[in-house]
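Predict the 3D structure for this chain.
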Amino acid sequence: MQLQEFHDKHGHLTNFSGFTLPLWFRGIIQESLAVRNAAGIFDVSHMGRALTQGKDSQRLLDHITTNDVASLKNGQGQYSLICNHEGGIKDDVLVFRLQDQEHLIVYNAGNREKDHDWIQANSRGLDLKITDVSDQVAMFAVQGPGARQLVHSLSKTDLLDIPRFGCAWTELGGSKVLISRTGYTGEDGFEIFVWDSSIDDPAKARAVWNLILEAGKPHGLEPCGLGARDLLRLEAGLCLYGTDMDETTNPIEARLGFVVKLNKEFIGKQKLQALKEVGTPRTRVGMVTERRVIPRHGFSIVRQGKAVGTVTSGTLSPLLNTGIAMGYVEKEVGQEGALVEVQVRDRLEKVKIVKPPFYDTTRYGYSRKT
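Done. Predicted structure below.
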């Protein structure tokens, strides 16, 4: 990790997917609220990143991902999934078209080797070059209502015109960087890819990180760890790979069918087409507890004394001051407004099924009105 020295000095560390990363710096709640109300900066350099370059770059990515890569113009990106031949989710990814015949794909840290091997295996016979740049390009996320203006003020080019899921090149702190606008917190903001900043020579990454950190401090920006990232993405109702989905989960039951484009050919299409037609026996739902308790991963979801599902993610939301969770339930149970219970140790706690995000979208999130 390019910022390991900073994390070792200032962070409370944990192991995540083989990386030693900050769980928190000043506190998970404080960092989460900073992102909701001002801005936060996350080091997400542990994510996997690969460049595909050549005549068949789009062809490869359209074959291995569920969304429509062919529809992307230069400077556009999309959220997508990689599925296996049975329609199970191998990973969720971001795909950006940087220029003609060149794409950047971003995937989860725990799937670095698996995804890269899958990309390579499916590229045989195609005319393109695949380069793993995970350890050569640092990656930060600056999120929150003040994030875009902050990063824009440090750039030599206008960044405010970058649309949602767009990307553009600029310079920060004397370094060449790619800026994208996706977000894994529910809030608006940018991801910053610091080019040519390797683990062995991280000077450029450190300079960009310190530049943003110092410029943002007067405006309430906080360095944030994995704890805040997980809390924020759950409040936004976003899935975490390996927790809310894996290769035993398909996009239809995970309610990610909006990125499955059946008008093209891709790995797993036939299975997913059939599932879309007949439906799935279970579905992913959001839940809010009646009392201030936390439904944990693996807890049973119960209705009328019968187990009808399982919690996959749960936390205590500082915005709602109550427990929130996601999980899978039998489809007939998963209607918005339905009342069920969660087995919390030796007692049943009442929960209501709701549609994420969990917060008031007029006050929080990238589409906030205030």
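The longest strand covers residues 306-317.
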